[in-house]
Amino acid sequence: MGDWSTFFKTRLAGSGQFIFDHEARHGETNILTFKNSARDNLTTIQIGLLDNGDLITFEIHNPLTPGFSEQQRREYFYKYSFHPTESYGDPGLEFIQLNIDHFDKLLREGLAGKEIQYYKDGQLARSDVFQNRDDVFFTTIQFEKKKLLKRLLSTFSSKEEFDFKKEIELREIFHGINSLKQRTLTLEQ
User: Where along the chain do its domains lie?
Assistant: First the structure.
């Protein structure tokens, strides 16, 4: 296994939890799409690969977490995204052990964090996405259409009116790949 395409096809489709759905071209990127094999689970995984084979995007989508999905659409990887001392570099992750280990862990353990959704007049107005176990770092995704002046004023005002809020653990949409968990347990025993 010497490239990202083979790696993800082996890990995701080989697990039985996902099936390879299709491959599409978007500009200079090949997009691989995997669907959850369970009928009641709408989670899909999209992987973007540059022409040189480097990984540019890895997105886990589910209609239950539109804020998390939107956040992922805005992000892509750099050469040193997971390097302990370097930062940025050219776009795309090389297929090297450091990066492979990161995705092996993600696929084995699943997502951590949560999305808090705020509803106003029955419509999703805003989502706060926390992608780790502590609630320190988060991204706010706005769904409500507001004029520029209203957006600026709401930034400085701590009082926003919402009808209700809903909290979803990201682990609910992707809890990891069971066969990788079992393989790890078997190796440890």
Answer: 4-110, 114-171
DSSP state for residue 13 in the 8-state scheme: G
In sequence order, the 6+-apart residues with CB closer than 8 A to the CB of 57 are: 29, 46, 47, 48, 72, 75, 76, 77
d(C-alpha 130, C-alpha 166), whole Å: 14
Q: Are 47 and 10 in contact (CB under 8 A)?
A: no
Where do the H-state alpha helices sit in 55-111?
66-73, 97-109
> In terms of C-beta distances under 8 Å and separation of at least 24 residues, what long-range contacts does 15-21 make, across chains too?
15/177, 15/178, 15/179, 15/180, 16/179, 17/177, 17/178, 17/179, 18/45, 18/177
Residue type, 108: R
Six token digits for residue 29 = 């990127």
pLDDT in tens, 49-95: 999 999 999 999 999 999 999 999 989 999 988 888 888 889 999 99
* Overall pTM > 0.70: yes
Query: Rounded CA gap, 120 and 54, in Å?
Result: 41
* Other Cβ atoms within 10 Å of 37 Cβ, number: 13
